[in-house]
Structure formats: structure tokens, C-alpha cells
Amino acid sequence: MKRLSVVVLLAMTSVAAQAxxxxxxxxxxxxxxxxxxAGGYFTAQNNSRRxxxxxxxxxxxxxxxxxxxxxxxxxxxxxAMLERVNVPAGGQVTFAPGGTHLMCEGAxxxxxxxxxxxxxxxxxxxxxxxxEVKGATGK
Length: 139
Known about the structure:
Layout: H1 2-17, E1 22-30, E2 38-46, E3 52-58, E4 64-73, E5 76-82, E6 85-87, E7 92-95, E8 100-105, E9 114-121, E10 126-134
Parallel strand pairs: 1-10
Antiparallel strand pairs: 1-2, 2-7, 2-8, 3-6, 3-9, 4-5, 4-8, 9-10
């Protein structure tokens, strides 16, 4: 019986030490004053052997939460909505200010709080993430 307990413990330890198939790190929202939208930023790490795409996001802290891409061409800034962001097998993608990001319209969040976000993936799974809410300067 004692030997079985050790085997079970070792098996649980090795599972816990393995990376999740899809990880989200450094998740935060930039909360702006008034009715301005909040931007969501993070790094997505795909630890699987297959490409996976982020296909959507939901949060009760946002009236509408979309994936956007900012760009600057010829001194003109613009934003486009994206249907998906591919994260290659074994690779990562960073959502950052001035690039790919989440756009939270109708934000209901307070600086210093953490708000839940559910990211949907192309493989049929979803990842729940707590986003830290920071001010306009990112602090």
C-alpha cells in the first residue's frame, strides 16, 4: 500500500511539473478615464505541437471585448478588428500597446482590481485568465 502511494505521488508531481498546453502570462488592462475603452495585454505561449489561434474573448467587465491590431502607416494610426491571432506550435505571441491587443468597450473595472477574461481558442478549448487593472501609465 505504501508503495502505491509513492507511485501516485510521483505521477501527480510529474503532471504538475509539465507546462499547460496553452499559457497566458503578464495579463493586464490599461484603464482609461471616462468612457474611453481599456486595452488588454498579455503573452500567449503555445506549448503544444499544433498551431492554435485565439479566436475570441469575453469578460463581464467589458460591454464588448474584441481583438484588435494597431498599425501606423505614413504617420497615420489605425486599428482593425481581427477574427483570430495564430500562436504557432511551441511559440508565443505578445499582445502589447501599439500592436495586437484586446479592446474593452464599456469597461467596468477599477485600478488595482483583477478582472476575469475567457479567451476562446481554435481547438475548441478556452483559457480563463485574471487580468490586473492598471492606470493610463501602466502602473
